[in-house]
């Protein structure tokens, strides 16, 4: 089977001669569900930017379906939420529909079947009653669900999520992962998360990013394994659920 995305020996960063990512190689296959973990500042978001084509590597290659042009691969992206999103004057359903722009370009109107599809997705994440609300009126968790709908409305081959559970209400957290499991039947998923304990029940493999990338063909994480690869974690307990979190560097 051919990988959908193939990174080979990638060096990337923001200032010349100061690589944040070094010697990174990774193959992403159609049914993958990869948990991307690592310490703060280790380079997880930078890796996503490289994969999304937002940051050109200093050296190394990134190939999509054996093509050089990333726009030919349909990628869905759920970015980290930031506070600016709150002041953006746009209706919830239009946020979801804006996920079609990559396919349609800057268009003025959407078809009724596209609107229906957007409504179905909102119903999928239990926000059917908010379709016509302003996005700024929603809680952080609700906004994340809307952005998830936007990321998947174009049926991407790869769904990329950056800390989706940062703002998600506890009540929706399990539902979010169940939803991702369902989506994984149709698309590869790359998930950056600090919640290693929780995601390990859903992910299939692990990429530990700490300047370099170490890929583990398992969803079981041992401290020894991560220590070996300089990706420190520790076990703590939140309530009744044992949890692994990453040290701050
Ligand atoms: N736009 C930028 N310009 C310059 N340096 C940056 C920029 N974005 C990130 N960095 C630096 O690159 C390094 C890696 O950052 P990155 O955000 O990729 O890490 P991360 O693993 O996603 O961290 P976190 O878990 O805190 O989100 C850090 O040292 C960070 O300060």
UniProtKB/TrEMBL annotation:
<dbReference type="InterPro" id="IPR027417">
    <property type="entry name" value="P-loop_NTPase"/>
</dbReference>
<dbReference type="GO" id="GO:0016887">
    <property type="term" value="F:ATP hydrolysis activity"/>
</dbReference>
<dbReference type="Pfam" id="PF00005">
    <property type="entry name" value="ABC_tran"/>
</dbReference>
<dbReference type="GO" id="GO:0005524">
    <property type="term" value="F:ATP binding"/>
</dbReference>
<comment type="similarity">
    <text>Belongs to the ABC transporter superfamily.</text>
</comment>
<dbReference type="InterPro" id="IPR003593">
    <property type="entry name" value="AAA+_ATPase"/>
</dbReference>
<protein>
    <submittedName>
        <fullName>Zinc transport system ATP-binding protein</fullName>
    </submittedName>
</protein>
<keyword id="KW-0813">Transport</keyword>
<keyword id="KW-0067">ATP-binding</keyword>
<feature type="domain" description="ABC transporter">
    <location>
        <begin position="5"/>
        <end position="236"/>
    </location>
</feature>
<dbReference type="InterPro" id="IPR003439">
    <property type="entry name" value="ABC_transporter-like_ATP-bd"/>
</dbReference>
<keyword id="KW-0547">Nucleotide-binding</keyword>
<dbReference type="InterPro" id="IPR050153">
    <property type="entry name" value="Metal_Ion_Import_ABC"/>
</dbReference>
């Amino acid at each position: 089977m051919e990988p959908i995305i193939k990174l080979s020996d990638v060096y990337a960063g923001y200032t010349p001669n100061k690589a944040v990512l070094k010697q990174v190689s990774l193959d992403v296959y159609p049914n993958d569900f990869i948990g991307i973990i690592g310490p703060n500042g280790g380079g997880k978001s930078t890796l996503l930017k490289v994969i999304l084509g937002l940051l050109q590597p200093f050296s190394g290659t990134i190939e999509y379906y054996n093509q050089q042009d990333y726009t030919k691969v349909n990628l869905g992206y759920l970015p980290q939420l930031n506070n600016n999103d709150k002041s953006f004057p746009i209706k919830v359903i239009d946020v979801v529909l804006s996920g079609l722009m990559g396919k349609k370009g800057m268009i003025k109107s959407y078809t009724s079947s596209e609107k229906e599809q957007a409504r179905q997705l909102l119903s999928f994440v239990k926000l059917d009653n908010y379709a016509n609300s302003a996005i700024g009126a929603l809680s952080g968790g609700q906004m994340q669900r809307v952005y998830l709908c936007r990321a998947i409305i174009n049926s991407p081959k790869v769904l990329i999520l950056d800390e989706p559970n940062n703002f998600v209400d506890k009540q929706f957290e399990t539902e979010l992962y169940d939803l991702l499991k369902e989506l994984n039947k149709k698309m590869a998923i790359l998930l950056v998360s600090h919640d290693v304990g929780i995601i390990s029940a859903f992910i299939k493999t692990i990429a530990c990013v700490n300047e370099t990338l170490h890929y583990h063909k398992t969803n079981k994480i041992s401290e020894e394994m991560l220590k070996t690869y300089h990706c420190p974690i520790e076990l703590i307990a939140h309530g009744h659920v044992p949890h692994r979190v990453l040290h701050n560097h």
